Amino acid sequence: MRLLLVEDDLMVASGIKLGLTDAGYAVDWVGSGERAEEVLRTESFDAAIIDIGLPRMDGLDLTRRLRRPDMASASMPVLILTARDGLNDRVQGLDLGADDYMIKPFELPELLARLRALLRRSQAATSSVLTFGPIELDTATRRAGARHNDQLTVIELGPREWTVMEYLLLNAPKPASKDKLLQALTGWDKEITPNAVEVYISRLRAKLEPHGVALRSIRGFGYRLEMRDTAAAA
Amino acid sequence: MNPGPIGAAERADPATAAAPESSPVPLQLPAEDLEGGHMLSGLRRRLLVMILGPLLLLAITSAWLEYRAAGGVTELQDQQLLALQPLLADSVIAGEGGGSPGPSLLLAPEVDQFLLARPGTSAYAIASAQGQLLFGESWLLAAGPAPLSRQPRFESSEHQGMTWRVVRQRHPTSLGELEVAVADASSPRQRWARAILLKVLLPHVVILAAAALAVHWAVDRALRPLLDLTEVVERRSPQDLSAIDLQASPREVRPLVAALNRLFRLVDAQAEGQRRFIADAAHQLRTPLAGLQAQVEAWAQAARRISPPGGHGTMLVPIEQIEKLRSATRRTSQLANQLLALSRADARSMAAQPMERVELKPLCESLLESYLDAASAKHIDLGLDVRPAAVPGYEWLLRELMANLVDNAVKYTPEGRNVTIRCGPTERGAFLEVEDDGKGVAAADLPHLLDRFYRVPGTQGEGTGLGLAIAQEIARVHHSQLQLESGVGGRGLRVTLHLAA
Questions:
Q1: Predicted local confidence at residue A35, as pLDDT
Q2: Which residues partner with A135 through β-bridges?
Q3: What is the arithmetic mean of pLDDT over B394-414?
Q4: Across the beta sheet with A222-227, what order do the strands follow?
Q5: For residue B296, what are the contacts with CB-CB under 8 A and spacing of at least 6?
Q6: Is A219's CB within 8 Å of B372's CB?
Q7: Which helix (H) or strand (E) holds B393?
Q8: Which residues of A touch B382 (CB under 8 A)?
Q9: Of A107, A218, A220, the CB nearest to B372
Q10: Is B362 helix (H, G, I), strand (E, B) or coil?
């Protein structure tokens, strides 16, 4: 994964670059919006992290420019960094085409989590395969499986189990609410009860368990996919 | 550099920061409106109009009445002159036989009296039908064309700088029909004009002038206490918010002085609160910063031993120290964020924005999502117990409030326990609640929990003592306050916020 970091503060930039490199990303760092625009004309990245408070061309301006249809970066995920958490800045950033924002100062694990979510979403938009850990759900062929050491083990899913699984994967690592799962299932049965959701969940649990993926109940809300060994990681 | 805590607080003092040496400048603009002279002249003008207006009207009315009365006087004068006519005509005596030189005049006593009473301002003339003067003064005949009938003719004419009232008439006499004219210059009209000037206008002018002077003086005198007060307030510096002496002020302005003193007290208390808060905040910031600095200084020193300043090379750093450094850094960041949140949640700045309808269930759900990872890391069961409810409020502030409560609960609840976020409708609105079954808070500490920078004695870990203070500030913006009590079975802590619909 190749990332573009646009940040003018040397300390912040070197910190982020170190953290991202350590997490396995290739990071290209530029210090100004003008330079970033130049680089984006010739090279492509999987995502960009852009600071709003840049000299001259600010981050919002840059975001608007790289979203122009003639730019290769038009659909690249963009995460905005800002030291101001005024509501206007957030809304403006998202309106201009940023996909997420973070308020400085932030903790590295949160940046990594958000970045992963962004990349997942952009992948999901371009490919038909939804993934979580070893789990793969090919929405084109409607085939589910678990990949271990490049070996894909097929997981047999019933149509309702598929619907629940697909919704869980689309939301991961965020939890999926029981209400929403119920809504997704009403396409199959008009009179479906909350108990039915629990039935499918427990069936899925049994099928995911061998692949190290847990389906955790979130009390009073719903369910969330988690890797069993690292419960906190998404 | 001034390292003392007092020095730091003083530099950050909002009063001195907002109004540097040129403090009179921002004060001068509003003060101008209250300026004594301006206030005085306005009142004076109004009082003058109110008092002099009616007085002037009175003067005009009485002058008009006087004029009406004078009209009657003129009529009387005409009657008198007319009555003298036959008497004057009878005063002409034809010569006896032919020997006598001609006709003679023997003035009737009434005519004589009339003439004697007005020396120089009365005259008469008797002329033949042909206009030839027989007796009296010739100018009277020149005043106008001779009368042709026995009808009396009244006219006014100027002579020797006086206005004369003249009555001319043909009268049968012993010499046949003659023209008789009687004139009176002691004109009541002129007397009236003079009288009006003296009797009516002059007193009124005097009264008007006196009233104007009185108003001027009275306004000055009556407003003196206000002007004195203005001067006292104007001379004040922003730092001097001591009370104005109530007893030394006149009775009439005491309510104003009392109100001013109350305002001074409030502003002073607020400024004092801010000063204390900034001093506390600076102090709190200094603690993690000191840790950071000590750590980095130590590394720099160790690095210098290995290689000269600016040189290259690597150094091993113990993992434990890095963890400490991260903890101190996070605490500093959190403190800065919370200080900002506190300033934004200020009731005064929020009053300007309208409240919106806030759905509480989605709010609680999104909070659960945000804190799920933190809770999972501590094996805390973070759950929801929510029913749909909506209240008017500021969504982002309520989110901030709940985030502080959930953050606290997750942070201070031991591993393996439960934290529950609740919301739902109540009789008079809705409620938001966060409950944990952790160690709880001792009854003695509960009242202090909402104080800024208060931390329960013996508390470990990151924390600024601001979270609940911010939550309480936000509750206040929503015209409510936090309720703190023990959770179910006397365990843990439950914080509830009731919101009005």
A1: 93
A2: A132, A146
A3: 89
A4: A176-177, A222-227, A213-218
A5: B325
A6: no
A7: strand B390-393
A8: 218-219
A9: A218
A10: helix
Which of B372, B396, B436 is most worth mutating to test chain A (most A CB atoms within 10 A of its CB)?
A: B372
- H/E stretch holding B366 reads helix B360-377
N-terminal to C-terminal alpha carbon distance within chain A: 18
Secondary structure (3-state) at B245: coil
Burial class (CB in 10 A: 0-12, 13-18, 19+), B486: middle
CA distance A68 to A93: 15
For B365, name the nearest residue in chain A, comparing CA atoms only: A221
Q: Which residues of B touch A (CB under 8 A)?
A: 329-330, 333, 336-337, 340, 365, 368-369, 372-373, 376-377, 379, 381-386, 396, 418, 420
Q: Which neighbouring-strand residues pair with A145?
A: A136, A154
Helices of type H across B12-138: 14-18, 24-33, 36-90, 109-117
Would you tell me how many other CB atoms lie within 10 Å of the CB of residue B261? Answer: 16
pLDDT at residue B166 greater than cutoff 50: yes
B433 φ, ψ (degrees, to nearest 5) = -150, 145
Q: Which residue has the tokens 């550099």?
A: B1
Give all strands (DSSP E) within chain A, no chain letters: 2-6, 26-30, 47-51, 78-82, 100-103, 129-132, 135-138, 143-148, 151-155, 176-177, 213-218, 222-227
Distance, CA of B140 to CA of B160 (rounded, Å): 12
Residue with tokens 């619907």: A163
CB environment B308-327: b (16+ within 10 A), e (fewer) = eeeeeeeeeeeeeeeeebee
Interface confidence: ipTM more than 0.90:
no
pTM > 0.80: yes or no: no
Three-state SS across B2-35? CCCHHHHHHHCCHHHHHCCCCCHHHHHHHHHHCC
**Least trusted range by pLDDT, from A42-51, A195-204, B351-360:** B351-360
Q: Do B333 and A177 touch (CB under 8 A)?
A: no
- Residues in A closer than 8 angstroms to B418, CB to CB, are 219
Residues of B in contact with A107 (CB under 8 A): 330
Q: Which of B399, B346, B395, B345 is nearest to B368 (CA)?
A: B399
8-state DSSP, B318: -
What is the rounded CA–CA span in Å between residue B333 and residue B288? 10
> Does the N-terminal peptide bond of residue B152 adopt cis geometry, omega within 30 degrees of 0?
no
